[in-house]
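Chapter summary example: a protein plus uridine-5'-diphosphate-xylopyranose.
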Amino acid sequence: MMKISIIGSGYVGIVTGIGFAELGNEVIFVDIDESKINLINSAKPPIYERGLKELMQKNKERFYATIDYNEAINKSQITFICVGTPPNPDGSINLDYVKSAAEALGKALKNKKDFHTVVIKSTVLPGTTEDVVKPIIEKESGKEAFEEFGLASNPEFLREGNAVYDFFNPDRIVIGVKDEKSKEILEQLYNSFNCPKLITDIKTAEMIKYTSNAFLATKISFANEIGNICKKLGIDAYEVFKGVGLDHRINPSFFRAGIGFGGSCFPKDVKALIAKAEELGEDPKLLKAVIDVNEEQPLRLIELLKKHIPDLNGKTIGILGLAFKPDTDDIRESRAIPIVRILLNEGARVVAYDPKAMENFQNIFPQVDYAPSEKVLESDAVLIVTEWGEFKNLNYKGRIIIDGRRIEKAKEEARIYEGVCW
Ligand code: UDX
């Protein structure tokens, strides 16, 4: 059993913390947001994540949240920094939250007598832990890293919507360390996990995270590019990738061709890696193409729509799905955003439905009508943008459906059906 503090209660912080609590540890969340603290202290999740509420209820004796860094650091042996690293407008990453967390943590560490390990879980570019975080904590605490306090990198690979499952069932655990004490404490913390555990130096661990996300994003853009060629040839890209994925060197996952990737990770991480590469004098041609393909892919849905309705002005266009993927209310970088923007610019009336993301979407698109799926299906044509499970059971008979995510029932039933890559 360990005493752990977690800085930042976004989906990574809260899932990691509650996961550790479920494993028998004591967890203290530190956040600057009072409303999040109150929610956590009443065992309510500050974000929606499947299975999280139940785990919070079950383990409520093992965690609490506070605004007080001193208390959290003094009462724990190890701190995970899990704050957000959002993108700057130029694609580089914004380290403001990481820096202020490091500063507050450093101040709290100043008066602590026992050894304390600090672990960076936030996604940060290679070199950040040692070049940015370390000097801040050293300056504020007056202590020397790797001697008087430990510092490590432990990237997360949690998928939103599946984060609780992923926490308990990781493919691997990556631990980037330099000092022996931190290595021991992290090995002990993850002792009950059976997956491979890779011990590396700190910047290698940071690079593993970026490389994994860049590869997955590449796989999707590759599937989409091949899918676009298949569409022109009258070939179903899903059949093709079934055949391709059976090669064990390739593997079948992440070949779902469609309208591209969104979310808080892939677009941001690939862009940040591009910006870093350019800073180093490299021209990352492949990574740039991954982003280009992804940005053009949603436009293909509109092109296919116009094949059937050339002039969108005054037409009612339905949208099924607004979240960047199913089972989340997150709309960050959702492909629905560029699609809805174009439809509105062309004078269409947009009616949209999403099981969880309508409220978030309404904040940026108040001019869209939000309605139940049956109403959306009455539109002149309907675009499928997110593959929610419940869309598998709708009645598509007699409709014009332009599908960006491959819903088989729509393919079978619609009067006119177009798939983006099939
Ligand atoms: C991703 C990584 O999977 C995770 O390991 C990392 O820690 C954070 O980023 P997440 O963004 O939650 O997780 O979602 P994921 O399920 O990976 O999907 C990302 C996007 O790619 C979604 O928009 C999804 O629709 C799209 N996608 C995924 C495809 O278009 N095709 C696929 O085959 C797979």
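Key point: The longest helix spans residues 202-233.
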